[in-house]
Amino acid sequence: MSNTTTLPSAGSARFYLRDEHHVENGTLLGFWLYLMSDCLIFACLFAVHGVVGRSYAAGPTGADLFDLPLVALNTSMLLLSSITYGFAMLEMQKNKVRATLAWLAVTGLFGLAFISLELYEFAHLLHEGAGPQRSAFLSSFFTLVGTHGLHVTFGIIWLVTLMVQVSRHGLVPENRRRLMCLSMFWHFLDVVWIGVFTFVYLMGVLP
């Protein structure tokens, strides 16, 4: 009796992958790499502001323009949004869909409040004639703060998209992974904003 095994002819072999081909923690690792590249972008913007932050071109200074109580209120909005996102993640661990969505909604509202106050500040500066073309100081200010604001805006869009996904499909592993990535992104923006508040606003009002 022959021990040979007949192999399928060329083109007839079929391979089926029953499980999802997704490396464990691969998405989180990739997202960490993205955040590191974003750190480089903000590091460059901070460096530029450090160089030209005192180049007023005989125009208004930070002490003349910045409304620190308004900026402090805006800062509190973003920090509170970070806390409420943490509550959302705790509810996700408990597999409570409605509670997770509720805390995500509160986070989004705080994010919208932050963006609204920032746009109000920009509009006020433009009305005072302190636009980005006025001096190198204002150019770097609008670029740095505006870049952070764009990140928060995209984060809110991402947040709303995930809320739709969770409401439709529940807290499946894919949605949990996406919520974890957004959590890292949101807390990263908080850390960057603390740097902006300290380096741009607080140091900007010093003589």
From TrEMBL:
Primary location: membrane
Top-rank lineage group of the source organism: Bacteria
Membrane-spanning segments: 28-48, 68-88, 100-120, 140-164, 185-206
Every Heme-copper oxidase subunit III family profile domain range: 1-205
Assigned keywords, A-Z: Cell membrane, Electron transport, Membrane, Oxidoreductase, Transmembrane, Transmembrane helix, Transport
Location within or outside the cell: Cell membrane
GO function terms (MF aspect): oxidoreductase activity
InterPro entries named in the record: Cyt_c/ubiquinol_Oxase_su3, Cyt_c_oxidase-like_su3, Cyt_c_oxidase_su3-like_sf, Cyt_c_oxidase_su3_a-hlx, Cyt_c_ubiqinol_oxidase_su3, Ubiquinol_oxase_su3_dom
Membrane topology note: Multi-pass membrane protein
Pfam family, one: COX3
Isomerase keyword on record: no
Cited function: Cytochrome bo(3) ubiquinol terminal oxidase is the component of the aerobic respiratory chain of E.coli that predominates when cells are grown at high aeration. Has proton pump activity across the membrane in addition to electron transfer, pumping 2 protons/electron.
Subunit and partners: Heterooctamer of two A chains, two B chains, two C chains and two D chains.
NCBIfam families in alphabetical order: CyoC
Name used for this protein in its record: Cytochrome bo(3) ubiquinol oxidase subunit 3
Organism field: Rhodoferax ferrireducens
